Give the backbone structure.
Amino acid sequence: MSEEKKSLNFIEQIIEDDLSNGYNKEQLKFRFPPEPNGFLHIGHASSICLNFGLGLKYNAPVNLRFDDTNPIKEEKAYVNAIKKDVEWLGFKWAKECYASDYFQQLYDWAVELIKQGSAYVDSQSSEAIAAQKGTPTEPGQASPYRERPISENLELFEAMKNGETPPRAHVLRAKIDMSSPNMLMRDPVMYRCLHESHHRTGNDWHIYPMYDWAHGESDFIEQVSHSFCTLEFQPHRELYNWFVEKVSHEGELLPKQREFARRNLSHTVVSKRKLLRLVEENIVNSWDDPRMPTISGLRRRGFTAASIRNFANDIGIGKRENMIDVSRLEFSAREDLNKKTSRVMAVLNPLKLIITNYPEDKTEQLTAENNPEDPESGSRQVPFSREIYIEKEDFREEANRKFFRLKLGKEVRLKNAYIIKAEKAIKDDNGNIIEVHCTYDEDSRSGSGTEASKRKVKGTLHWVSVSHAIPAEVRLYDRLFTVEDPTAHKEKDFLDFVNPKSLEVITAQVEPSLKSAKALDKFQFQRIGYFCVDQDSSESNLVFNRTVTLRDSWKNK
C-alpha cells in the first residue's frame, strides 16, 4: 500500500475503493442534511467539515439539504441559522435542497408501494404498534390491518393526504418482515397524519413522511453517491437500502450509506434535546449563548472558523465513539488567535498605582507592537501618565522569591513603558490595599536604547492609564459543566452538574484604542487571554466575551 493510501481515513478509503471498482469521479456527490429543528453544534461542525471537505478533495458537488419532515419542531429561523453557520465555516454548497421539495414524489412512490403490496395503512394506536414489534430475540406480531385490500389502502391513504381523517388516526407502514432480526425492518412507519402547518409547504399536506422513508429517497433523487451519517444510523442501513431499491431501476446509481462515530465533547452536551432544555430552563440566555457548544455560540464567544475546522481535522473520523476533551478545541482557538489577534492592555481587577516622581501634568504616547507573530500588523500609540491601573493580584506587600510581580522595595517593568519600584501601599480603614505608590526610572523607557532600558528585571506587568482608561463590561465565560460527562450519571439529571461559575461579569478598564472595536473583533488581552467584542456592545458600553484563557486553567483541576 502506498504512503498516500496509508494516510487516508476510512471514509476516504471507501470512496477510493469505489473509484477502483466502477465509480467515476463525475458520479461523486455528497450532502450535508441537517434537520431544521435547532441550531447546529460542534458535532455538526465535524460532519460539515467531512462532507464539504470530501467535496473539495474530489472536486465534487455537495448539497445542503434540509430534512424538514417534522413541521411540529421545524422553523424558518433554524434554516437561516444553519445556512449562516455553514457559510461562516467557509463552505459553499452546490444546491440548497429540502426534503419538502420531494413531498409529491415521495407520495407517488408510496402509492406505488401500496399497489405492489409493499405498504399498507394501519389504523392502530402507536402504543399497539409498538407492543406488536416484539423484542430483539422474539419476532413481532402482524398487525390486524396488514392484509388490508390494496384498494382500501389506496382510498385511506388519499383520505389521509387530503386531511379527511383525524390526526394520528392512521399511519402508512412498509410491509417487510415482522420476524426480521433487525427490528427496524418490522413494518416501519412511512407516514403519519399531522394537521400541522409546514414552514415551506404551509397547509398543503396533512401527512408527513418519516425520516427513514424521506432521507434515503432524497439522496436517491439528488443522486448522492455517498451518504455519511453517525453510528446510531448503522441499523437503519438495511432499511435505507430496501426503500431505495424499491423505487429505483436497473442501471441507476444507488446512494451508499456509511457510518462514522459521533465525537462527544467534554464538559458540555451535544444533544439538541438537552441544548433546548438549557435554553428553555434559562440555564443559558439563548441558542447563541457563548457557553453553548452551538456554532453560533462559539462564533459569538470568539472562536474563529479556522479554529473549528482545524479542530475537526485534528480529531479526525473514527469508527468508535469517544469523548474529546474540550481542551483540544480551546487549544485550537489559542493557536489560531495567537497568529491573528492584536495584543492590547486591559485590567480586569484594577488597583491604582501612582508614580510619585512622574510629572502630574505629563502624558506621553508610547509605542506598542500589535502582534509579534504578524510583522504586518504594525504598532499603535498607548497613552502613559502618572496614575495607572494594574491588576490587584500583581501586587503584594511581601512575597517569596517565586513572585515575579510587584512587591514593596522591588522592581518590575511596565509593558512598553518604564521600570518602576514599589515604595508604599495605601490602605483603607479595613486594611485593604487601595493604592500603591511607586517611583520610576526615567531613563528605562522600553525601546529607547539607553543602558537603563536594557536593564533586566524579572517581572513585566500590563497597565492602563487612569485618565485614558475606558470602562468595559467583561464576561468571563468558563466551561458549562463541572464534570467531563454530565450525562454519565444515570441517577442524576445532567443539569445537576451545571457550573455555577460558568459566567462572571465584571467591569474592567481597557486601553483607549479599543473604543472603536466592533462586534466580533478579537484581541489578546495581554497576560490574560483572548477576548471578542460581543454583539451587545455599543459605543457607550463596550462588552467583551472571554474566548479562552492564555493557558488551560482546568489542566490541574
User: Anything to note?
Assistant: The CA atoms of residues 87 and 424 lie 56 Å apart. The two ends are 44 Å apart (CA to CA). The longest strand covers residues 419-427. Residues 1-5 have pLDDT under 50 and may be disordered.
